Amino acid sequence: TPHSCLSISPSSLSVDIQGLQRQIEELSSFSDSPAPTVTRILYSEKDVLARRYIKSLMAQAGLSVREDSIGNIFGRWIGTEAALPAVATGSHIDAIPYSGKYDGIIGVLGAIEAINVLKRTDLQPKRSLEVIMFTSEEPTRFGISCLGSRLLAGSEELAHALKQVVDGQNITFLEAAQSAGYAIHQEDLTSIFLRKDDYFSFVELHIEQGPILENEGVPIGIVTAIAAPASITVDFEGNGGHAGAVLMPSRNDAGLAAAELALAVEKHAMDSGSLDTVGTVGVLELHPGAINSIPSKAHIEIDTRDIDEERRNIVVNEIHQSAIRIAEKRGVKLSKFKIVNQDPPALSSNQIISTMEDAAKQLNLSYNLMISRAYHDSLFMARITPMGMIFIPCYKGYSHKPEEYTSPENIVNGVKMLALTMANLSSE
Ligand code: GLV
Ligand code: MN
Ligand code: MN
Ligand code: MN
Predict the structure, then answer these.
(1) pLDDT score at 7
(2) Which BP terms does GO give this entry (predicted)?
């Protein structure tokens, strides 16, 4: 095989799991909601503190640390052939409201530990090894998923959108970034783009966020493809009015239009012909939000995904048709139907898949080849470099809720897999 020339032996890999678990606990304390929940929103005070902590860990690991103007953080171990494209890894540390300690975190703290593991061997990497902490993988604040990696991968559309986008408090992206200490200006946004030859490969370590590995007792997942996500925001507007005085036939209730659309999302996802289609309404806001006032405005946010992009696009279109029909039927205005993103799926690189398979075999770990139904920064890194992902099992497949958990054993396996995969890629 092309990977037979091994740079290090698997038995020389030792993970400081106690230290890593302490770091996971410490990072989880930078949260805007009480333990055990974690809430860490882009450019909040807690996010700024967490970022400082990550940079300090990168520096302690002896990495040279660079931060771009929106706060993507890069820690590099410079290789003996420093001019060659680097082998990168990384993930995110932002956390959706009331979530857990592991989503994204394992791919950042675990990656820094993977570097420490390799530094404890006598490896001198040929290609540089780099850990990336991506800004805002989660769409919570500005509605844009994988914001940092999407921009790094050269999205002109995003660079443009970021000039105007605001959060729920009407704070612009640029103001929010500036308040977190990033002196970003509109003109700079495209300067963040990476070039296709900056990296030799990108590998992300992540919890599975689904139940398959745990159910089957398999310690490692090797991701072959990432499903195609889309998100949509919709606003309905009606006349509102007094909940006692306006009789039922004279109402045009924006809230009921939103409720009906939420049910239509469920139906379109379920009627697609495949269990791989999912649709979720995770945000539904009513205005003015008073028990005795008919909702005059409703805002909903829709997430729909599939491993098949065409089928996903059919569902997006059906949701649009339903929104138009419901607005007509209920006499409300469909004041916004905005497809925020409609991303294609990504395929892992065959070469990286086989490097990961070799690593699993060297470590005597069984593995499944599998699809990622969640999205990740890897979806966008795949646009500029060959990509691969390593999954570890998580308790009952729980994620995006506080019960999220993965065991120390799983973490050790994942960190070793990542270390060995990166070492092998760096020697190519
Ligand atoms: C990312 O967190 C996702 O929703 O897949
Ligand atoms: Mn997530
Ligand atoms: Mn994640
Ligand atoms: Mn994700």
Answers:
(1) 65
(2) purine nucleobase metabolic process
